[in-house]
Design goal:
By secondary structure, the chain is mainly β. It is 0% helix and 52% strand. It has strands spanning 2-7, 10-13, 18-26, 33-39, 46-52, 58-60, 68-73, 78-83, 92-99, 113-114, 118-123. The strands form two sheets. Strands 2, 4, 5, 6, 9, 10 and 11 form a seven-stranded mixed β-sheet that branches. A hairpin with a 5-residue loop joins strand 5 and strand 6. The protein starts with a strand and ends with a strand. The relative contact order is 0.32. The mean pLDDT is 94.
Length: 124
C-alpha cells in the first residue's frame, strides 16, 4: 500500500504560480512512476505530467508544456508540481498518483495509488 497526500492548492490569479507537493508513504517501491492528473468540473480526469524514479524522464501534456515542471525528492518521498503562468482553464482538482510500472505513464490505468486531490482555482 502507498498513501499519497497532496498539498499546496489554492486560489491564484491568472498568470500566477503555485507549487503542489505530494508526500508518499508506505510501500514506496510502488512509486517508480509518479504522476499528476487533474479533473475539472464536468470533465474527465486528464493527464498532466509524470516523472520516473530517477527523475531522468519526464512527461507533459501539451497544454502545460513550458509552464509546469515536475520534480521529485526520493529522500523525502515527495513529488512536486511547479505551476507557472496559470490560466483559468487550469482550474481543477489535482491528483497525485503512483505506479510500480514504467509503461504508459500518461495513462491513468497504470497508476495503482491515488491521493485525495487538492483544488487549484485560477481566477481571470
Amino acid at each position: 500500500q502507498v498513501q499519497l497526500v497532496e498539498s499546496g492548492g489554492g486560489l491564484v490569479q491568472a498568470g500566477g504560480s503555485l507549487r503542489l507537493s505530494c508526500a508518499a508513504s508506505g510501500r514506496t517501491v510502488s512509486t517508480n512512476i509518479m504522476g499528476w492528473f487533474r479533473q475539472a468540473p464536468g470533465k474527465e480526469r486528464e493527464f498532466v505530467t509524470a516523472i520516473t524514479r530517477s527523475g531522468g524522464n519526464t512527461y507533459y501534456a501539451d497544454s502545460v508544456k513550458g509552464r509546469f515542471a515536475i520534480s521529485r525528492d526520493n529522500a523525502k518521498n515527495t513529488v512536486y508540481l511547479q505551476m507557472n503562468s496559470l490560466k483559468p482553464e487550469d482550474t481543477a482538482v489535482y491528483f497525485c498518483a503512483s505506479s510500480p510500472l514504467i509503461v504508459n505513464p500518461t495513462s491513468a490505468a497504470v497508476y495503482h495509488y491515488w491521493g485525495q486531490g487538492t483544488q487549484v482555482t485560477v481566477s481571470s
